[in-house]
Amino acid sequence: MSPYWKRLISGITGLFFILDSLWLLAQNKIHLGILLPLVIGSLLFLYALCFPYVQQWQQKTQLRSRLWTCMWTGFLIWIASVGAFFGFIASHLNNDHPQQPTEAILVLGNGIENGQPSPTLQKRLDTAAEYAQQHPQALIIMTGGLGFQERYSEAEVMQAYLQQNYPDLHNPMELEVQSTSTELNLLNSKKILHQYHIQTDDPIAIVTSDFHSPRARAIAQHQGYSQIISVSAETPLYIRYNSWLREYFAYLSGWLLNEY
To answer: What is the pTM of this model?
Structure first.
């Protein structure tokens, strides 16, 4: 590739990443899938701006040239691994059969904003409500603890949202308000399930975002849930790929922590 195209592609890509991250940060959304594109975008844009000087620096010695090549090779390999992960997520977006009988519906939390479910969490709750209407006897468990500087737990906010928006939903409902991670969501929910004489080998639906379903399923299986029904909610487009990027690192950390 010619130096002109390298510079142009780096500049446009970097600017796109920067604007995307800044727009999401302006909406008080902060996580690794937003911050990392900002860092990468800033470096790419700076590289485009200083392209002639960078070229002179790395061409001065053979060692610098090799180091520069290794850096770009490593970056491109990482980009390829992220692309492969996105392909994996895209291939697991479909729900299990909605008519399959279920004893309980676990709705996994995803953060609240100004006392209300985040847009991503609203999608989960809407999907859970639609699914629960087909299984009116199933126990619904809202999962999510108390966030920083929040007055109410995620589970309480989730329950209020369903009661307000789906008044005809009459499934029994319980709250799991202690957890701060998917692993704890599923672990602490076992106590509630046992109170209702529901075992982990009974059919249990897990409602979460599409990008999160494969990892949630893997964690649940590791904890002994054996008849899992994955019910996936669509992720809002404006934050979809940032969330997928965050999930890339969550998968790695989950593997290192032996969560599945």
So the answer is: 0.86
